[in-house]
Amino acid sequence: MNKREFLKSAVLAGAGVAILKTSVGKTVKENNKPQSLKHWVWENPNQKETDEMMLEKYKGFYSAGISGMFFESDSERHYKAAKSAGLEAHRWMWTMNRGEKELLENHPDWYAVSRDGKSCATNPPYVNYYSWLCPSKPEVQEYLKKQVETIVKKDYIDGIHLDYIRFCDVILPVNLWKNYKIDQTKELPEYDFCYCETCRNAYKEKTGIDPLDLEFPDQSPSWRKFRYERINNVVNSLAEIAHKNKKPITAAVFPTPEIARRIVRQDWTNWNLDGVCPMIYHGFYREQTSWIGDAVEEGIHFLCGKFPLYAGVFLPDFKSMNDLEAGIKVAIENGASGISLFGKVDEKVLEVLRKIKS
User: Are 171 and 263 in contact (CB under 8 A)?
Assistant: First the structure.
């Protein structure tokens, strides 16, 4: 099951440079509204599409104001088709969540361990594809660097987009609790990562305390900060590789800095990126469409102009095309440099973008 299928199943069950520094420079804002916008689409390349089908689709995207694609897998044919239509083509890479058979079989020691001592290699939390690597291990860091190096050296790939660049969700968005029949009003040990020997020893060396000895680990600022820094280190080392190869790097992240830190130990305002796409999936948090603006405002505030923010929206969350239009507008009004679309981008969605563009 890939990310798209997981999100789709969650819905049925009831349940990340837009303005890239290397391509178009900085956005100038007036009255907190960008003068120029870049929109993105997350997509898993459909290998059944013909060259003609792809070109027609991507030309439609471009004419509606979409600037680039985040492709979940490598398909030179799709990348080149998107580029020929005027779009940027970036590789969307699963980062810390890696369930490749080769890794699981040959490097089970690379995987994160929960507070109750279970490894993601053998006991994935929530769903069977949740196989989280430990960011503290040098072997993992080198593996991810090689993955990025391979991607950014391909001439048909314009940039790299990191996803699952975090720890496992210690707390899921509230609308998903019923799917798993769990109450996460407090942190549960089976979803709290990482307590492998590498992490424990590194934290103990820094503080003199084994995190397993903390009476209330969920209330320890130093233990939480330690884990933020583990991911920060991975991201910034990957960004260095991308920039060395003159390729922009972006990331899909959790909706606000506060939510990201609290539920997935993700400190994205301290990353050296060229853009960020917070997944402001308001339905997952039982929020109204207007909350998209609140989330954008918070992210913009804490970024302090470091890099552009593109509001990620989940199309099935919207009740109508008017609702989608309202969501996009409130994101832009609060400082987003564009939006990132996740879901089926059909003619109705494109018409909304054209309306906003005009």
Answer: yes
